[in-house]
Description:
Layout: H1 2-8, E1 24-34, H2 37-46, E2 48-50, E3 60-62, E4 74-85, E5 88-99, H3 107-116, H4 118-128, E6 137-147, E7 152-154, E8 159-160, E9 175-176, E10 178-182, E11 189-198, E12 203-213, E13 216-218, E14 222-224, H5 225-238, E15 239-241, H6 242-246
Antiparallel strand pairs: 1-5, 1-6, 2-3, 3-4, 4-5, 6-12, 7-15, 8-9, 10-11, 11-12, 13-14
Helix pairs in contact: 3-4
Amino acid sequence: MGTKKGARRGWPTKRVLPNLPPFQFSIHTSWLTPFRQSDWQRMKSIGVFEKKSAETPFDTISTTAIVPPGNVDALAYFTCHSHVQPGKKEMHWSLILSSRPANPPPKNVLAGTKKVGGMTGLFNLVQMMFDASNPPLALSDVKVLVSEEKHWTCRLLPQAVPPNSVVADLGRNARLEEIGYRFTENERGLSQFSVLYDHEDKDFTILFQSNDELHLTCDEAIHIESAEDHIKTLLGRFFERASTTNG
């Protein structure tokens, strides 16, 4: 019932961009900085502290989900933990952006959003935690979900398996529904991706990793520029409007 109610209120669960199929996404971007007590204390003042345990061998601090204003389509989370090695103490940071659920946010999320100062407050907080003039190299793990629909065609999947394939005689009417690539010499940018077609749920999942300098922007939502650029590139490369192929 919550999903239907949320949908009626107009909260988007998919991002819509020009010349790309509508999609849902999750971006998990992580990076390291030298440990600074002031950063740790600043996070403790606005986040939820969890002491290390058998399951998690370090103390962590996390915000709640931060809800954007109005009908903006993405939530944000921010988390950190310290990591001690001989002669070195580092902070491990993670910024997570994900498509906004259709159902209304719970009270603790609204309170957490207010405490950090909304999406702009979170953006300012994150920017304090690294030197924007010398940005760290960040690892992004990204998932993109595209529903199969008549207006868009995937150029990659599904594909019929040719009769001379090594798997052709293992069953009848084989189709290729998953494909992946890894770039063995890319130190920066896209390092690997895979595409999966789910014939039961009728959707496509794109998973990719990339290593890029950390550059953030904020309007009503926070944007991790490199990860979102990779999303646009892959969607533009893999999908085309059905009218293009159908003439």
